[in-house]
Amino acid sequence: MTFLQQLASNNDKRWFDAHRSQYLDVKAQFEILTEKLINGCAQFDNRIHDLSVKDCTYRIYRDVRFSSDKSPYKTHMGAYICPQGKKSGYAGYYFHIGTGGEGYPHGHMLAAGDYRTQPEVIRVLREDIINDNGEIDRIIRQKVSPLFSIDMNSALKRVPRGFSEDSPWSKYLRLRTFCLCATPETKFMTANDVIERSLELFATTQPFLEYVNRAIEYVYEEERIK
Predict the structure, then answer these.
(1) Which DSSP symbol is given to 158?
(2) Measured distance CA(50)–CA(41) in Å, rounded
(3) How far apart are the C-alpha atoms of 218 and 123, rounded to whole Å?
(4) What is the DSSP letter of 148?
(5) Which residues pair with 180 in a beta bridge?
(6) DSSP class of residue 93?
(7) Is the whole-model pTM more than 0.90?
(8) Which of 81, 128, 151, 188: disulfide with 93, CB 3.0–4.6 Å?
(9) pLDDT in tens, 51-60
(10) Is the peptide bond before 72 cis (omega within 30 degrees of 0)?
(11) CATH of domain 2-225
(12) Cβ-count burial 160-175 (b if 16+ within 10 Å, e if not)
C-alpha cells in the first residue's frame, strides 16, 4: 500500500524505473496473497480449480490509448478468482488493494459477481428472477454477509420492457451488472489475517456466484449448440 501511495504521487516512467526493484518485491508479495486466495476459494467453490496466479492477476501498466488520463501505471493491485481464469467471462471473487482513498480505484474493495454482465446473460438472469420467485433476493438476504451490497450504480432507472413495474423483484430486474461489493477499511486490509477474513466473507457470496454462473453456463451452452 505504501508503494502504491508513492506511485500515485510519482506516476511516471522515470520514477517507476528507479523503483523497479521495490515494485518487483511488492508484486511478489501480492502473488503470495493471490495464491492463498485461490487455494482458499477452492475450498468452498468447486468451480475454482487448476488456476495459476497469472490466471487471476493483472499488469500494472495502464492502457492509455483511449483515456484522457495518460498516467502510465495503475495505483491499485487486484486479483480476480473465477472459473477458468480472469478472461473466461465467469463470475468470481475480486480482491482489490488501493491507496486507501475513497472510490474506485483508490479505495479497497472486495467484490463477488460479474461486473461486465453480457446482455444474453442478463436476459437469462431476468427470466430466472421471475420464474424462481426472487430466489436471488433470498440468497442475498439469508446467505451473503451484510457487509456486501448489490451494485446499483449502473442499474436502469426503470424496470425493462416486458416486466411489471410492480414486481417485488424490480430492483434485480433493473440490474445491468450482477455484482456484490464491500469496501473494507485500511485496518482490515493491513491486518495479518486479511486473507483469512476475506475468504470468510467470500464464502458467504458463493451461492450468489453459483446463481449467476448457472446463467452464464446456460448462455455458453446455447452458443455451443448453435
Answers:
(1) S
(2) 12
(3) 11
(4) -
(5) 112, 150
(6) E
(7) yes
(8) 81
(9) 999 999 999 9
(10) no
(11) 3.30.930
(12) eeebeeeeebbbbbbb
How many residues in total does the chain contain?
226
Share of the chain above pLDDT 90, in %: 91
Q: Find the DSSP H helices in the chain.
A: 2-9, 13-18, 20-44, 119-131, 135-142, 170-173, 186-189, 194-225
Cell output for 143: 446467505
The Cα–Cα gap between 157 and 81 comes to: 31
Please give the radius of gyration of the chain, using alpha carbons only, rounded to the nearest integer.
19
Per-domain boundaries in the chain? 2-225
Cell of 111: 467484490
For residue 142, CA distances in Å to 28, 71, 99, 135, 139 come to 37, 43, 33, 10, 5
Question: How confident is the model over 179-212, as pLDDT tens digits?
Answer: 999 999 999 999 999 999 999 999 999 999 999 9
Q: Which three three-digit cell numbers place residue 59?
A: 499488469
Closest alpha carbon to 76 in 53, 51, 56, 58: 58
Cell of 205: 457470496
Strand order across the 92-97 sheet: 77-81, 92-97, 109-114, 178-182, 149-150
